[in-house]
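Interim report, section 4.2 (structural modelling).
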Amino acid sequence: MNPGFTGSPLDRADRLRNDVEAFNAALNDWRARVLGLDGLDPVVASEGGLKWISMAEVDVSVDLILLGLANGKPHFVPLVEGAGGMARSPAVWRALSMLPAEDAAIYGTARSLIDWHNNHKYCGRCGGSTKVFRAGWGRQCTACDAEHFPRTDPVVIMIAEYEGKALLGRQSAWPKGNYSALAGFLEPGESIEEAVRREIMEEAGISCGAVRYVTSQPWPFGGSQLMIACVADADGDQLTIDYNELEDAMWVTKDEARAALADAPDKRFGAPPPFAIAHTLLRRWVEM
Amino acid sequence: MNPGFTGSPLDRADRLRNDVEAFNAALNDWRARVLGLDGLDPVVASEGGLKWISMAEVDVSVDLILLGLANGKPHFVPLVEGAGGMARSPAVWRALSMLPAEDAAIYGTARSLIDWHNNHKYCGRCGGSTKVFRAGWGRQCTACDAEHFPRTDPVVIMIAEYEGKALLGRQSAWPKGNYSALAGFLEPGESIEEAVRREIMEEAGISCGAVRYVTSQPWPFGGSQLMIACVADADGDQLTIDYNELEDAMWVTKDEARAALADAPDKRFGAPPPFAIAHTLLRRWVEM
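Predicted structure of the assembly:
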């Protein structure tokens, strides 16, 4: 199983972004498709995929971001207003459990871009207002001309492993009984391996040695995150939990993880949803 | 050999950042050390490491960023003005060839943080001016209270491999004869593996299958970058070079890479410097 939000069928067509003529031709292409949105939420079409509308149905005053090409057809998303942030409506969660993987990947890219635009209306350098350029893949300051590009924040998400058991934790806001991999933002000046060791030490008081990369996923909630999933070799299993970050943490066996992933009636804990990389990571770990 | 800019001996002491009292105590700790800088460049002390100065030598009007603790001693860097950006002075390059790895890691973190502050003096959401908070690990808008945190941009850097040969490229601005791994910014909505395949396709017209993660490194020039080094299995070796991105690209054998890394007189190409992850990647590849 591939990580969630990966596998978009769209060619990002980077070459069209700097070519104003080609971009305008794409905007005027009668085959163009525009992603239907309900606020920031996806709209699921009657056939079960994302709903696409035609250019004729779009308010002409709205900026359009070029998501890419599929079979030569340009695909856009309108730059709508929206708070974004970590808040996820129940509708998004429901939609993600229904959408084909390719459609979830397209939606994730669109949502991350919209969120970035809405949080970068002004220039960080001079405070001037910025405007869309590069087919929606950048903003330029109208005062100082500085160019700004969509950002992605790397996040490490990891299992510490000790004597065949994996360290999982839970936050109080999560559904009762659910546990997942520890995670945290990578900071300036850190490698992935250093960030993994620091986060496990900060949150659970566990020192780790070797760190093995497992897989990665883009995550479109709370901006645009790159989730980097790893397994780290723990030096011991004596927990010192940071209760500002976690409500609880515990060591689980592979059998317990299998039961959680299978949603068995006697499972010890609830697993993360399939489109979260913690799910993929746990699945890969039980197979290691 | 560890990748450059990794291995900082400082404990980042995240717990002190939200604790104003503890942070003030650190500022008033007589053992505190402050990183000496010449503009944005490092200053190499007579013993060969970074130069540290005492709190008494620092202009009281300058904000101090808490880099972390070593042996209980707080270590700071002054938030100086500076353009940062991709431009690297010859002095930085010379200093990096002399500094111990641990000191290069501390300097890299400091430089990335300074660069971030100088590019985020205004709030992207409302245009209001921002001020330093969280011991230098954030800025808060004085108008709308929005909190902003230091960003790091993930960059994929990779070798495509085909029948035992590695694909390397060169940009026209590089020293004559130097070749390195291809690289590019990861975009919103992509996994590491997807970004690797897209970049190799865009720059060299080569389609790739499996992508193997190798290692990672923070890079403090042009902001704060997370360099993610990979090897990708190429489906063929017929190059279609994007001359907007590259001046040239070529397939090299492991023997040729070894000669370049050893700086042999009859080498086919010049290798990247040891503190660049492309060097580490090439070294790991010849050992694979």
